[in-house]
Amino acid sequence: MNILLIGSGGREHALALKIKQSPLCKQLFIAPGNPGTAQHGVNVEIQSSDFRALGSFCLEKGINIMVVGPEDPLVNGIYDFFKSDPLLSDIIVVGPSAKAAQLEGSKAFAKSFMDRHGIPTASYREFSISNFEEGVEYLKGHSLPVVLKADGLAAGKGVVIAETHEDALGAFEDMIKLSKFGKASERVVIESFLSGVELSVFALTNGKEFVLLPEAKDYKRIGEGDKGLNTGGMGAISPVPFADKAFMQKVLDKVVQPTIKGIDEDGLVYDGFVFFGLIKVGDEPFVIEYNCRMGDPETEVVMPRLASDVVEMFIAMDQGNLSQYEVKVDPRSAATVVLVSGGYPETFEKGKKIDGLDQANDQNTLAFHAGVVEHEGLLLSNGGRVAAITSFGNTIQEAVDNSLKKIKNIRFDKMTYRKDIGYEFVGF
Ligand code: AMP
Ligand code: GLY
After folding, report:
1. Residue to probe by mutation, ligand 1, list 279, 286, 292, 296, most atoms within 8 Å of CB
2. 216 and 264 inside one domain
């Protein structure tokens, strides 16, 4: 199989490593990739938004499978672009149609989907400029804290958890009247706050059948003890100790199965990963969000723990053989610690020389590149999240400690990271 992977982050480095391990993978290309993905395949200078150029490249190289890492090209219709072109339609695309990607691309779409299919989620209402005043009254009477979500994609920044009615009304006005997130906040979902612990569950589906991948927990806040601003993710662990057999059975029965059934009943065309952002309230799972792709940095712990051949799984997805597919999982724990540029998630500098990154790789540790570029033989930082250092261990703590030990020998100017990833699970 010739495979094209779309994206350029730590998630794509982890996917590239896993895809290239498959004996079924003949050639691997990554567009546009990063210096880490280039260790496992050939990077191609095509942006993920340039569907036409990606299509031509697939024809030129005889690509059989295209794996789409990030959400933007999916929401913008890369699946539909390929499937509507007779020359490209035989290519297996791992990633849903634009319509199905609305499960991530529109919070209002996702909420009404969950409502329709009886999937547990926070109660909500949806507002826009046409019923703004009604929204103001609704907010004034809402219990606190209250959650406001810009409807569209806002790079993970479109959620406000307001502790007072005053803050809530301010955020509501910013979103709808002042277009704080542009078109994404033309519509706003207001929902009740759920109190509990979060985890991420992943499935690979063809819209009728699915398999589950190892679950993970990510650490979104910049500061230790989960304090400070939200980021794309500062680290992740897998497995998640509180996701025991009984709880995961509930997730399967109340969330995953009804979601796949709902996708089928609604006629949504869905090949690819579903990311269930869940919260455990008491003993019950609720859906906070759907994403139509793998998570980052969760992929950097999920892929290393996946003992099955991921390319074989993509083929089973395409051929309708997922229900018989048995996913094998490495029983060890994995943890990833993300190295970020000082100042992130606000302003930060790029172009810092990175030392010791690839030297961290050994039988227990994988150094995934994220915001990294190569320039004249040097690795330079090129983003907020620069690298994700994943290690295995017999326990979560051991896995985190192994990564922290390795990080001592990695350096770039103003490098920052959290030393407390997995802190709730010391002893697991
Ligand atoms: P989202 O972009 O929907 O994942 O929301 C970002 C983060 O906001 C989530 O990871 C949660 O930590 C938090 N969040 C979102 N919705 C709720 C909710 N209804 N109750 C509590 N926390 C929430
Ligand atoms: N780590 C959260 C995400 O990928 O959206």
Report:
1. 279
2. yes
147 lines ligand 1 (CB under 6 A): yes
Mean pLDDT of the chain: 95
Using CB distances shorter than 6 Å, the residues near ligand 2 are: 218, 233, 291, 295-296, 298
* 320 in the same domain as 230: yes
For residues 70 and 10, membership in a common domain is answered with: yes
Cβ burial, residue 346 (10 Å; 0-12/13-18/19+): exposed
How far apart CA 20 and CA 40 sit, in angstroms, is: 6
Q: Is the pLDDT of residue 156 over 90?
A: no
In this structure, the strands spanning 188-192 and 372-375 are: unpaired
Supply 271's token pair.
């090949």
- Are residues 237 and 360 both part of a single domain? yes
Element (H, E) at 197: strand 197-205
- Of 358, 412, 407, nearest to 421 by C-alpha is 407
CB 88 within 8 A of CB 146: no
- Name the residue with the closest Cα to ligand 2, atom 4: 295
Ligand 2 atom closest to the CA of 294, numbered from 1 = 4
pLDDT of residue 349: 97
Instruction: Please count the other Cβ atoms lying within 10 Å of the Cβ belonging to residue 177.
Output: 11
How does pLDDT run across 227-257, given as a tens digit for each residue?
Answer: 998 899 999 999 999 999 999 999 999 999 9
Residue nearest to ligand 1 atom 12, measured at CA: 198
- The range of the structural domain enclosing residue 62 comes to 2-85
Q: What does pTM read for this prediction?
A: 0.95
**DSSP class of residue 270?**
-
Tell me if 147 is assigned to some domain: yes
Same domain, 223 and 136: no
